[in-house]
Design brief:
- Its cofactor is Zn(2+).
- InterPro entries: ADH-like_C (IPR013149), ADH-like_N (IPR013154), ADH_Zn_CS (IPR002328), CAD-like (IPR047109), ER (IPR020843), GroES-like_sf (IPR011032), NAD(P)-bd_dom_sf (IPR036291).
- Keywords: Metal-binding, NADP, Oxidoreductase, Zinc.
- Its EC number is 1.1.1.183.
- With 368 residues, this protein is α/β, with parallel strands linked by helices.
- It folds into 2 domains: 200 residues, Alpha-Beta Complex (Quinone Oxidoreductase, Chain A, domain 1), CATH 3.90.180; 134 residues, 3-Layer(aba) Sandwich (Rossmann fold), CATH 3.40.50.720.
- 26% of the residues lie in helices and 26% in strands.
- It contains 13 helices and 17 strands.
- Strands 3, 4, 5, 8, 9, 16 and 17 form a 7-stranded mixed sheet that branches. A 6-stranded parallel sheet has the order 12-11-10-13-14-15. A two-stranded antiparallel sheet has the order 1-2.
- Helix 6 links the parallel strand 11 and strand 12.
- Helix 4 packs across helix 5 and helix 4 crosses helix 10.
- The relative contact order is 0.16.
């Protein structure tokens, strides 16, 4: 008989988990591996709530293993390091993003692109090398190989900064890779949610002229006055869209719901790039003519590798790029997921793990 999550490994841990496709969370006792010679153990202080967490707990992408402890925007303080660890020491502030493993040998890994390694290990609900499941940051502690640990800058707040480990790198990476990081370029950002608002901040920090593209006029004031966007387009307003045709060098599309992309292609200059970072469940319609008539590119990208994630965190600290967050206790997570489904958050929930995750004894009394 297979061991229970609580006894698979020697280090006792606890958090909140969903057990089935209802996505309902409750307290959960499990275990983590001992700190190996190249491992770092840290106390989780804060963890961001990503839209991917919502998809995963309901198994909407068909890849979830239950029970699932989500969370891949994890920050905390190092409590133990392995004998060969050189990257950090006890007491250091650190983070873990979307990855906790990769083969470290393939061409992608050699190019610091562990995020495209065919043997990558995701931070939660993914088979680890020993066959057990990975569990994420809705929990009291983490153990990860030092290679996948991000060193946290002293001047970057842990709580507000946590979502940078997914929302930040997912938008920073395409801006850099596709050359949309040059002062004076005109960049469109589609959607003003958890990813979109961070994309606006990074694009502005690079010195670009930013146009927010949204279905809702109600977001215009916030986009321009608070986030610093230069222009705002209502994608359902045909006159506005026609007037802006051929004006943008590139677009980062952060929307994870099904939506038309042909109108977005019309906004691009010749040689323009539309980069998808959202992950709609249904295929997008993509006719050939809008592409071939302007040598336009439709591309996709996921989070960056570890080296680039560290670069992004350091850039954010230097340029004061910080997400807008709403702090919540862990026992609010079910309500938070309901609100996230309705886009009722500006713009990212962050769980105050250290203050709100009850000690193990209490977890035991509540029948984890």
């Amino acid at each position: 008989m297979a061991e229970s999550p609580e006894t698979e490994h020697p280090v006792k841990a606890f958090g909140w988990a969903a057990r089935d496709t209802s996505g309902v969370f409750s307290p959960f006792k499990f275990s983590r591996r001992e700190t190996g010679e190249h491992d770092v153990q840290f106390k989780v202080l804060y963890c961001g709530v990503c839209h991917s967490d919502l998809h995963m707990v309901k198994n909407e992408w068909g890849m979830t293993h239950y029970p699932i402890v989500p969370g891949h925007e994890i920050v905390g303080e190092v409590t133990e390091v392995g004998s060969k660890v050189k990257k950090v020491k006890v007491g250091d502030k650190v983070g873990v993003g979307c990855l906790v493993g990769a083969c470290r040998e393939c061409g992608q890994c050699a190019d610091n692109l562990e995020n495209y390694c065919p043997k990558q290990i995701l931070t939660y609900s993914f088979p680890d090398v020993d066959g057990t499941l990975t569990y994420g940051g809705y929990s009291n502690l983490m153990v990860a190989n030092e290679h996948f640990i991000i060193r946290w800058p002293e001047n970057l707040p842990l709580d507000i900064g946590a979502p940078l480990l997914c929302a930040g790198i997912t938008t920073y990476s395409p801006l850099r890779y596709f050359g949309l990081d040059k002062p004076g370029l005109k960049v469109g950002i589609v959607g003003l949610g958890g990813l979109g608002h961070v994309a606006v901040k990074f694009a502005k920090a690079f010195g670009t002229k930013v146009t927010v593209i949204s279905t809702s006029l109600s977001k215009k004031e916030e986009a321009i006055s608070k986030l610093g966007a230069d222009e705002f387009l209502v994608s359902r307003d045909q006159e506005q869209m026609q007037a802006a045709a051929g004006t943008l060098d590139g677009i980062i599309d952060t929307v994870s719901a099904a939506h038309p992309i042909i109108p977005l292609l019309s906004l691009l200059k010749p040689h323009g790039k539309l980069v998808l970072v959202g992950a709609p469940e249904k295929p997008l319609e993509l006719p050939a003519f809008p592409l071939i008539q302007g040598r336009k590119i439709v591309a996709g990208t996921t989070m960056g590798g570890i080296k680039e994630t560290q670069e992004m965190i350091d850039f954010a600290a230097k340029h004061n790029v910080l997400p807008d967050v709403e702090m919540i206790p862990i026992d609010y997570i079910n309500t938070a997921m309901e609100r996230l489904l309705k886009s009722d958050v500006k713009y990212r929930f962050v769980i105050d793990i250290a203050k709100s995750l009850k000690p193990e004894e209490d977890c035991h009394r509540r029948s984890c």
